[in-house]
Write a structure and sequence with these properties.
Length: 726
């Protein structure tokens, strides 16, 4: 912490919002957070977007939750910590004794600190002995994870933000980067502003703020990007833009779940995926697909792909991810500065705490799997618990977790730092499940009421961001230490402290004996050693001195790793670089190009529900809006969700700007004001997810990807009816 002459103390931290992980300093005066400023030495070069800049306002927000609440009949009433925690512990204990460990679960968040998520994961998997530990990253980046693991044998991107400064071609697909990752988008805009010869291809049904800088905007019928990716690969082969030496040395081919195909099979598979066929399915121009492929594969040019929820939140999200990896692998545009696939992450610590830390129902820490005997044995040894403690069957992934609650099989759920009462698909179904007779719902939250806390039996006041310390890990494998800047408001406590208290009350104090998050971090360092994530050298002291460090970082003093896999012919890479020519994590050292056909979304438009429905985000708000709606400036801008319609659809429906319409799917309906938007694709409707009154997830479908289990928030079929005029 540094004291400025004006009396403000500046404490090093990181933004509380998106997975870009912008470094910043928190300004403290008189024990209160009064300002933030971007960290000029971090990757964001001192820049923050509007959300980051407004962070101080969330600290004293009117909805801050300041003391424990317990349910008495229809009401949540104030209680002491002792009463609330006693109730939580006794209900969990009783449920476990009566119905077994799998009758309870934990639902966490990519917003929790790594040490908090770690304590929960260890307590539930090794203490209570259930694998029912999942979290909102399942709704966000599970398909990206499945894509990386299936393709390279390891999770997480190989590239870094610096690649945005080296790329000549940007392939942005399923991402409104301008609004959802604005500080990264600024880096691309800067390249254009400087007159550099960069091309931007945007593949998105909508014309968005991102497509405004596109040299080519490919608008497609929702879900048909699978056909377009294959058609691009078709063109790359047809026009000799593939790197056959690279393919020979570094690529294997697979179909289904087996790596059992050859290059010739793949070329044969691609024959039918002509640009004309993809254009027919996608409702776009074949020549635009050809242009996109030519730019992507141009010789001597570096290509970076960026994507996020548009690919991930799909019933074939894993395939969509893998098809983008295919394009990089057949062209060899990977593993060198400026050429990389780089999936963007939604939350500040989805990567570090949940994905890397193994806090999903099928995972154990640092790349280990619940279903793998050796991995369980390793973790039992590292955690010093008897052999056989860890259960071999994966727990329930998010949608199944709440379905189990609906069925009465999951009887007690602890929700930390997230808002499933607003963010789950097919929402009313699962809101009912959370209120089901006999179900016990605990919510640890910094704000109240939320659409989840209003359903809870116990609402614990959680410390917020600058009121606690711990590690966040962002998109590019960069870990940051957030230092505590101020004391928690009211009676709020850090989730780390609350979870350690719960562990003690449940008789598992020995498992989580930590007095501080720093002690838990020391234990975490022992778990990653020797794994692909190895950040053993990332001590608390090293993190404190740094502006974020990128793993692998296997020993003290190691500088960290910007690119995990590097090309042997890369002039940026010294000859003795440890990763030189060691490309991939699979046993044969090769990455896999998968043969994946186009498959329609889980629900398609028909005569009854003739319009596509798409959900997403806007610049000023974040997730379910519990924080951003508490900032005056942000609340004034787009806090209310509207139904965005193309002028042709608005005319056909007889509605205009400001009219009220009901958007109905097979699962539910919501009423929105109309916004007529030229950039909306005809035949489709868009609404954002941030509004806690107009709940777009009443409409969405809970179909999930069979591999990643991520729901298809991005596509379903609806009808739109006029309710009233403006
Ligand atoms: Fe925060 Fe993301 Fe904005 Fe950076 S881009 S300031 S991490 S919300």
């Amino acid at each position: 912490a540094l004291a400025s002459p004006a009396g403000t103390t500046w404490v090093k931290s990181v933004c509380r919002y998106c997975g870009t992980g912008c470094g910043l300093y928190v300004g403290v005066e008189g024990g209160k957070v009064t300002a933030v400023r971007g960290d000029a030495q971090d990757h964001n070069a001192g820049f923050l977007c509007v959300k980051g800049a407004a962070l101080p306002q969330i600290m004293g927000a009117k909805d801050r939750h300041l003391h424990p609440l317990v349910r008495r009949g229809d009401k949540l009433v104030r209680a002491s910590w002792e009463e609330a925690m006693g109730l939580v512990a006794s209900r969990f204990q009783e449920t476990i004794q009566k119905f077994g460990p799998d009758a309870v679960g934990f639902y966490g968040s990519g917003q929790g600190l790594t040490e908090e998520t770690y304590v929960a994961n260890k307590l539930f998997k090794a203490g209570i002995r259930t694998n029912n530990v999942d979290g909102n990253p399942r709704l966000c980046m599970a398909s990206a994870t499945a894509g990386y693991v299936g393709t390279y044998g390891k999770d997480e991107p190989m590239g870094c933000y610096e690649d945005l400064d080296h790329a000549d071609v940007f392939f942005i697909t399923g991402s409104n980067t301008a609004e959802c990752h604005p500080v990264l988008f600024r880096r691309i805009v800067r390249r254009k502003e400087r007159g550099q010869d960069v091309k931007v291809i945007v593949l998105d049904p909508r014309r968005t703020a991102t497509s405004r800088i596109a040299d080519l905007h490919l608008s497609c019928t929702p879900g048909t990007d699978l056909a377009i990716f294959n058609a691009m690969a078709h063109v790359l082969f047809a026009e000799g833009l593939v790197d056959r030496d690279f393919i020979r040395d570094h690529v294997a081919f697979g179909e289904g779940t087996e790596v059992n195909r050859a290059l010739a099979d793949y070329e044969k598979f691609l024959q039918s995926w002509t640009p004309a066929e993809a254009a027919r399915l996608a409702g776009c121009k074949a020549e635009d697909i050809v242009t996109a492929a030519r730019w992507f594969g141009a010789r001597g040019r570096k290509t970076t792909s960026l994507w996020t929820m548009g690919l991930n939140q799909r019933s074939r999200g894993t395939w969509a991810n893998q098809l983008v990896h295919n394009l990089h692998l057949v062209t060899g545009k990977i593993g060198e500065p400026g050429s990389t696939p780089l999936s963007l992450t939604g939350q500040p610590n989805a990567c570090g705490g949940v994905r890397d830390g193994g806090a999903l129902s099928h995972l154990l820490p640092y790349g280990r799997l619940v279903a793998n005997d050796q991995h369980r044995a390793q973790m039992e040894k590292l955690w010093n618990v008897p052999a056989g403690t860890l259960q071999p069957k994966p727990g329930l992934a998010t949608v199944d977790l709440f379905r189990a609650m609906e069925e009465g099989k999951l009887k007690a759920l602890y929700v930390m730092c997230t808002n499933p009462g607003q963010s789950l698909p097919s929402l009313e179904r699962y809101r009912k499940a959370m209120r089901k007779e006999g179900a016990f719902l605990v919510v640890s939250e910094a704000f109240h009421p939320t659409r989840t806390s209003e359903l809870a039996d116990v609402v614990l006041p959680a410390a917020l961001w600058a009121e606690k310390e711990g590690v966040y890990g962002c998109t590019e494998r960069r870990y940051h230490l957030l230092e505590q800047a101020v004391k928690p408001a009211g009676e709020a406590r850090p989730d780390f402290q609350i979870l350690c208290d719960l562990a003690r009350r449940l008789g598992h104090a020995g498992l989580v004996p930590f007095k501080t998050p720093a002690e838990a971090w020391d234990e975490i360092l022992t778990l990653c050693k020797g794994t692909p994530y190895d950040f053993t050298g990332m001590t608390r002291a090293a993190l404190k001195e740094s502006h974020g460090l990128l793993w692998p970082l296997p020993s003290p003093g190691h500088p960290g790793t910007k690119r995990r896999y590097v090309r042997g012919d890369d002039p940026f890479v010294p000859a003795d670089h440890p990763q030189r020519l060691k490309f991939y994590g699979r046993p044969d050292g090769k990455a896999v190009v998968w043969l994946r056909p186009y498959q329609p979304p889980a629900e398609v438009v028909d005569a009854d529900y003739p319009l596509w429905f798409n959900t997403g985000r806007v610049l000023e708000h974040w997730h379910t809006g519990t924080m951003t709606r508490n900032c005056a400036e942000l609340r004034q801008s787009q806090a209310e969700a509207v139904a965005e319609l193309h002028p042709e659809d608005a005319k056909r429906l007889g509605v205009g700007p400001g009219d009220q319409v009901k958007v109905t799917s097979r699962r539910g309906a919501e009423t929105f004001q109309v916004s007529v938007v030229e950039g909306q694709r005809p035949g489709s409707v868009f609404a954002h997810m941030h509004d806690d009154q107009r709940l777009c997830n009443r409409i969405t479908v809970d179909a999930v990807d069979p591999v990643s289990k991520e729901p298809e928030f991005k596509i379903c079929a609806v009808k739109v009816e006029k309710v009233s005029a403006r």
